[in-house]
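ok so i was messing around last nite and threw this chain in just to see what happens. nothing serious, just curious
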Amino acid sequence: MFIINPDLFLVPSYRISPFTSSHIAINNELPNDNFAVGYFDKKFGEGNWNYTFNGREAIELALQYYNLNKNDLVTIVTTSENFYISSCVTKSIEKYCRWNRELLPETKIIFVNHEFGFPYLEIEKLLTTGIPIIEDCCTTFFSQDEKQNVGHYGNFSVYSFPKFFPLQIGGLLVSNTKKKTTPSTLLDKNQKQYIQNVISNDLKNESNLLYKRNQNFDYLLEQFLKLGFTPRFQTNQNIFPSALLLNNNSIINDLNKLKTFLIQNGIQSSIFYGEDAFFIPCHQNLSINDLDYFTEVLKAIIN
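result:
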């Protein structure tokens, strides 16, 4: 059985990230490993990428190349075309200029947000504008479109490692132009090696990681379909979601209460604001019992 609404000090902790407290010790024991260097050189080209402290720093370093002033405009487009956009993105842009959600004549940069691991599919149309593009691949590390070109359309692409790997810091800035990326100003040498050790360890087992991630996604979705929820996006063999995003279908009257209830029971969650939808963890380090626990927590609030 599962305990619902435990004592405050005995609540479990399930994050959108596959990082758990146990990885403090696991990661500390990993040997120095440079496998990730070859992986990224092959994927992005030697010298075209740099580690960053997180996805936010990667976004800011990309924006710095354009010498923006406060009146310049960055237009954000997203896969869902919903108005929801993470404050991590908007606050990073606001350090340099304005942002909006509609392409205008004064747009200086187009910021393409590939949401939840699902690529924005109209990016080739944006290329015809000639406006510089930054691809936000923070939740789309492994996913691709039919042309296998996600992360290579834009002038720059940015990534966030904790969305897919069990660590607390780390991002990537990639340049797809003659402009080279700027090294992180926040990471020290030891932190870079730490990130590289963890990423290398998981990338060596990439096929197993992706198999387990998709297996968990399919299993949890199957359980929630029985409760009346449906997927917000449709997956395919090229998609590896960062979380399970579900249409609520008016099953739960108050999604804010759902979010609070999930968090009270140790499950990181948020609402897909602007829609009747929410998202929860669904990564490779969850067991079937963990996923069954998620289902029982949802049943508890429904009942």
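not much to say yet. The chain has nine helices and eleven strands.
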